[in-house]
Amino acid sequence: MSDALNLTDVIEAATALSPWAHLATVGADGAPDVVPVHPCWEGETMWVMVGLSSVKARNVGANPQVALHWQVTEVGDGVEVWGSAALVDDVETKRRMWNEVFDYDLSAFSPGGPDDSPDTAFLKVTPERAMVMRQYGMGGVSRWRA
User: Fold this and answer.
1) Which partner for 125 in 27, 29, 40, 46 could form a disulfide, CB atoms 3.0-4.6 Å apart?
2) pLDDT confidence of 1, banded at 50, 70, 90?
3) Residue 13: what pLDDT?
4) 132: closest CA among 64, 83, 72, 43?
5) Cα–Cα distance for residue pair 138/145, rounded to 1 Å
6) CB-hemisphere CA count at 13 Å for 114?
7) Cβ–Cβ under 8 Å, residues 36 and 21
């Protein structure tokens, strides 16, 4: 991998690492919060399922800047993505997330499905920059910017 990346390279590297990432948000009080999530990509947009009453949702309402860090492999390869997030909770988007975007059964977390899940929303993350590290950076770091 060269030092220059495009977003497709970043998506492929993140997807190859793990379906799990850690999402960092910051609340109105300036306090950070980090939680594991299972993001899914739709083209160049990343989506994360959230509860409208969750800390994640409240934090994004106060500060849309987020960061995600994918699980690091045993050799130290990792991916970080920074971007801005927006809460989306309309039924049309929920149906699309349920039926076309997510690669696991969302009903396990929201049994009402897309039509009867009033507390379920999605974070729409627009990536702004990213970094792919090999061997904790000792094997090279490649960066992408929108």
Assistant:
1) 46
2) very low
3) 95
4) 72
5) 21
6) 16
7) yes
The domains of the chain, with CATH numbers, are: 7-135 (2.30.110.10)
pTM, rounded to two decimals = 0.92
pLDDT for residue 83 is more than 70? yes
* Three-state secondary structure call for residue 138: coil
Decide the pairing of beta strands 65-70 and 21-26: antiparallel
Q: Among residues 92, 93, 96, 79, which one has the least CA distance to residue 143?
A: 79
HEC string for 24-88: EEECCCCCEEEEEECCEEECCEEEEEEECCCHHHHHHHHCCEEEEEECCCCCCCEEEEEEEEEEE
Identify which of 109, 128, 122, 121 has the alpha carbon closest to the alpha carbon of residue 68: 128
